[in-house]
C-alpha cells in the first residue's frame, strides 16, 4: 500500500473511467499513459469492467490499474482476478473492506463524515476516498475532517476539475485527486482518443506547476 501511495503522490491525478465497449480501454490507456498519466480507475458501473482491466493490464503493464465503484465481495474477487492493483469503493462497507484484506488487495473506501472515517480506522484503513468531494463540502470539509484525524491520507473524487484540482493538491494529506474530465463518456463514445490525450497532458502540466 505504501508503495502505491508514493506512486499516486507522484502522478497526482487518477482518471476515473467507465467503458461500455471493452475494446475502447486500450486506446484510452495509451492516450493517458503516453501523455503522463500511467494510472486508471476502471469502474464497475459497467458490466465489462473486469474484462477491461484485464485487457489494459496486458496491453500496458506499466500502468497502475485499479477497480472503482466496487460494492461487494463478488466484485472484489473479480477485480483481483482481472489484475487490478487496488480497489476503490464509493462508501465505507466493512464487508467489502474485509474481503479485500482477506485476499491482499489494497482498498480505498469512500468517506465523507467522521463516523465513516472511524469505521475505516477501526479496520486499519488510513487512506480513504473523500466522495463525493464537492457536494460534501469540498476543501473546507476536508480540512475540517483532518483536524481530528490528521493521520488520514485522502483521495478526493467527485466534482474535481482543472478549476480546483491544484487547490485540493495543496493540502499535504491529499495523495491524488480522482477525476473524469479528461475521459468523459462523450469522448469515449466519439472515439476521441486525441482529445483524451490532449486533456491528460494539460492536466499533468497543470498539477506539476510549482504550487
What's the mean pLDDT score?
97
Record field, number of beta strands: 9
Percentage of residues in helical conformation:
40-55%
Widest sheet: strand ordering:
5-4-3-2-1-9
Uncertain runs? none
Radius of gyration: 16 Å
Distance between the termini: 26 Å
Count every helix, treating DSSP H or I runs of 4 or more residues as helices. Answer: 10
What quaternary form is this? single chain
Proportion of residues in extended strands: 15-25%
Task: Name the structural class.
Answer: alpha/beta
Shape, please?
globular
Q: Main beta sheet, described?
A: 6 strands, parallel
> Helix and strand succession?
HEHEHEHEHEEHEHEHEHH
What attributes does this structure have?
single chain, 211 residues, alpha/beta, 3-stranded parallel beta sheet
Describe it for me?
By secondary structure, the protein is of the alpha/beta class. The protein is built from ten helices and nine strands. Strands 5-4-3-2-1-9 form a six-stranded parallel β-sheet. A three-stranded parallel β-sheet has the order 6-7-8. Helix 5 links the parallel strand 4 (86-88) and strand 5 (107-108). Helix 2 runs parallel beside helix 10 (193-207), helix 3 packs parallel to helix 4 and helix 4 packs parallel to helix 5. The chain is globular. 41% of the residues are buried.
Amino acid at each position: 500500500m505504501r508503495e502505491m501511495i508514493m506512486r499516486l503522490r507522484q502522478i497526482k491525478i487518477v482518471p476515473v473511467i467507465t467503458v461500455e465497449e471493452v475494446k475502447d480501454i486500450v486506446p484510452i490507456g495509451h492516450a493517458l499513459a503516453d501523455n503522463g498519466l500511467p494510472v486508471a480507475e476502471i469502474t464497475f458501473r459497467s458490466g465489462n469492467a473486469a474484462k477491461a482491466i484485464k485487457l489494459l493490464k496486458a496491453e500496458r503493464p506499466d500502468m497502475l490499474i485499479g477497480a472503482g465503484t466496487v460494492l461487494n465481495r463478488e466484485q472484489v474477487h473479480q477485480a483481483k482476478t482481472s489484475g487490478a492493483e487496488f480497489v476503490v469503493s464509493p462508501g465505507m462497507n466493512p464487508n467489502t473492506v474485509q474481503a479485500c484484506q482477506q485476499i491482499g488487495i489494497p482498498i480505498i473506501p469512500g468517506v465523507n463524515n467522521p463516523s465513516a472515517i472511524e469505521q475505516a480506522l477501526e479496520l486499519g484503513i488510513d487512506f480513504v476516498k473523500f466522495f463525493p468531494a464537492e457536494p460534501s463540502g469540498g476543501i473546507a470539509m476536508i480540512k475540517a475532517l483532518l483536524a481530528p484525524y490528521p493521520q488520514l491520507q485522502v483521495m478526493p473524487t467527485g466534482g474535481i476539475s482543472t478549476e480546483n484540482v491544484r487547490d485540493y493538491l495543496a493540502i499535504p494529506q491529499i495523495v491524488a485527486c480522482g477525476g473524469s474530465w479528461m475521459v468523459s463518456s462523450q469522448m469515449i463514445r466519439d472515439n476521441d482518443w486525441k482529445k483524451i490525450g490532449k486533456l491528460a497532458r494539460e492536466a499533468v502540466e497543470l498539477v506539476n506547476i510549482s504550487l
